[in-house]
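FIELD: query
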Amino acid sequence: MLIGSYQHNIDSKGRVIMPAKFREELGEVFYATKGTDSSITVLSKESWDELGKKICALPSSKTKDLQRFLFSSAAELIPDKQGRVLIPQMLRDYAHLEKDVMIIGTGSRVEIWDAERWNQYNNDISETQVLEVMNLFGL
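FIELD: result
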């Protein structure tokens, strides 16, 4: 399971260190695409393939916007020997990544956020919102 939060910097070439724990879970090759809330979603090859199959199995009349959103911005990420991955410029622009980033585990995927946006997002979540969802699961 992908859990935890890690703060890192993007270097001048657009590379960021993917935490070792996440690399172990994601594998040698993984995929990044636009996520929600101006973040980048990172999936293992297996999860990426499964998502693609599910989306493509549905009528394109219903999924064409999602297909365009996810697949046109997708990039294959292969960590170098230092564990760095190159985040394509299009994705860096989409997520407003310039220097400080947060790399977070959300269970089944990793998200990459601009650190300031991540902190603002966390500040905006109310305990009531979290409790409402926890109640759905009987927690």
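FIELD: remark
The chain has a mean pLDDT of 93.
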